[in-house]
Write a structure and sequence with these properties.
Elements: H1 2-16, H2 20-35, E1 45-47, H3 59-67, E2 71-78, E3 83-89, E4 96-98, E5 104-106, E6 121-124, E7 128-129, E8 135-136, H4 142-150, E9 155-159, E10 180-182, E11 187-189
Parallel strand pairs: 1-2, 1-6, 6-9, 9-10
Antiparallel strand pairs: 2-3, 4-5, 7-8, 10-11
């Protein structure tokens, strides 16, 4: 999928050039939109991601979710099987350390053997998204593998800067679309 690789490179390069002020401002708007989702009323278990390098910032959002009493889960990379594991996070300072690819991951002591079957909501990062919910991730296939196995019942929410909402991308059989995309300007239901 040469075309996917080229698009990924293009969008990640473009994203790396956005100013930190814009990233912070847009991230606050996206997080605020997320907290207004009506789906949160009935949600308990939320899987987020630890933002890095110009991704939509999630640390303030995760603190807010913990403060509001949600059960927060974060992924860790299982390189040997191209999949994500998961851990329940109580404290962002003590429960995380730098892991694979420089991402903040749950410390080994709290990692769970099995992924809970009853995740209510999964926040999904990406380089770009289409309005129909498909995404180009970072090329490892970890999220698609995880979502195809563990996200049947969960609402999948993609976080995306408006400028990386694109008309179309090549879609493969294993790609799993998200149900909602949140940008700094709008909330889009994809299905």
């Amino acid at each position: 999928m040469q075309q996917k690789e080229e698009l990924r490179e293009k969008y990640l390069k473009e994203r790396s050039q956005i100013s930190q002020n814009k990233i912070s401002s847009w991230s606050k708007k996206i997080n605020s939109r997320f907290l207004k989702l009506p789906h949160l009323k009935n949600a308990k278990k939320i899987m987020a991601y630890a933002s890095m390098r110009k991704e939509i910032e999630t640390f303030d959002l995760m603190e807010e979710l913990l403060d509001q009493g949600f059960l927060l889960y974060l992924p860790f990379t299982k390189k040997d099987v191209i999949d994500l594991g998961i851990a329940h996070i109580n404290d962002l300072d003590s429960d995380l350390k730098e892991g694979v690819y420089g991402v903040q991951e749950p410390v080994p002591a709290i990692r769970e053997e099995k992924v809970p079957e009853d995740l209510d909501l999964i926040i999904v990062p990406g380089a770009c998204f289409t309005p129909s919910g498909y995404r180009i991730g970072y090329g490892g296939g970890y999220y698609d593998s995880f979502l195809s196995k563990h996200a049947d019942q969960a609402l999948k929410v993609g976080f995306c800067y408006e400028r990386f909402l694109v008309d179309s991308i090549p879609v493969e059989n294993h790609d799993v679309p998200v149900d909602i995309i949140i940008t700094e300007k709008e909330t889009i239901k994809t299905n």
